[in-house]
Amino acid sequence: MIQKSALIYKKLGETPLEALERFRVIQASEGRAEFAGIPMTYAGRLDPMAEGLLLILLGDECKMKEKYLGLGKTYEVEIVFGISTDTHDMLGLAEMKDRSGAAHPAAATDVVVSKVDLQKYVGKFEQRYPAYSSKTVDGRQLHELARAGELPDAEDMPSKQVEIHSIELLEVESISADMLRNRIFSSIDLVKGGFRQDEIKDRWTAVFSEKDFPEKLKLMKIKVDCSSGTYMRALAHRIGAELGCGAFALSIKRTILGPYQF
To answer: How much is the pLDDT for 103?
Structure first.
């Protein structure tokens, strides 16, 4: 029987294409002749700072890619409060101030985080694509427009209807500044290619060096069951923005992809 697909684990720091090529190399090294020279593609993206299940389509099944793109997803997400970034995850330019110039109340997040009503995010809604994403506008991807300073106005940013079926609070804890710094820098160093890594690390260094940077920040772990195309980093940003303290996705792990799971 011809194998139509394979389920692999995309590592933190990899692009989906890098994960696909790693899979191809492993099959060749193991002498799997049935994989030699056949078309392969992945069904559903994962950002470099996300990890988890990635579905690889094989051979003629690549022509059926569209039927896989609508599969529901389940993620486990860690959200850090008190800091925002322009990508809504750690691979972005960090800021401890909102657009008005007011500092995020990073040191007061015990009280702030206790006010989170996760159930308000359950249901269907229009979610704007993050500025740093592969969504195409007039033939150019948003991340290209963002780097060139040519993004549409906020109200003109493309969006799509998505649905969050359920959100479960797994844990709320504190994370020390030292541990947060180590996780961020070690994760960024895993990323290859042109993702502004040097500029991003310089900005993180500046943020961690601010005199009012707290010794600990609040970290929330949630489990989200959602429709295809729902951005977890955009959800993290929205929660932080609506609380008024800022937030970003420290980790995103896809644990279920339609009927597939490890």
So the answer is: 62
